[in-house]
Amino acid sequence: MTAAYPNHIWGIDITYIRLQHGWLYLTAVLDWYSRYVVSWALSQTLEMEFVLSAVDNALFQAKPEIWNSDQGSHFTSPKYLERLQREEIKISMDGRGRALDNIFTERLWRTIKYEEVYLHEYASPKEAYRQLANYIRFYNFDRPHQALDYQSNSVTLSGSEGSPLDLRLIGANQARFFAPAGLRMTLV
Fold first, then answer.
1. In this structure, is residue 185 part of a structural domain?
2. Is residue 123 part of a domain?
3. Is 135 among the domain residues?
4. Spatial contact of 40 and 135, defined as CB atoms under 8 Å apart
5. Range of the domain at 139
6. Are 50 and 175 in contact (CB under 8 A)?
7. Mind listing the pLDDT tens digit for each residue in 110-135?
8. What is the CATH number of the domain that holds 117?
9. What angle is formed at CA 50 by the lines to CA 119 and CA 30, rounded to 5 degrees?
């Protein structure tokens, strides 16, 4: 599949983020045409809620024609699939063992890990959230991308005709942090 314009194809995936003492899980929704991170969420557990929040935040901003993922349990769950079906989005799932089907999201993970995560030892989930939020903002608005003629994702996205993403909303609404029940955490 080749994305021909903004909001044609979005991909979603989950990766792990190393802390000094433990792990977090990061999910992101990526516009394949512009490489723009439309929405993301960070969680201390792999419970479904953080994936659904990233999906809901993304759909609040725009709607793709096609939504791609792997066949992991989060992405085959009825709650997840119902959200996409309700919006009449075509669902595309990678073949088993074919990580390259979702190459743009896999490439995002590599970039985030080599340019941010592996360079820092996050002492806490709060620190990881702040650093990742700053990096994703940089990735979306300032980082040049070779595949985009060395333009940033936001320039490619906003310079495209008919792009319904409102870039003013994205900074405030694109990310959420989820902690296990009973753990109170305020992120400032």
1. no
2. yes
3. yes
4. no
5. 9-178
6. no
7. 999 999 999 999 999 999 999 999 99
8. 3.30.420.10
9. 65
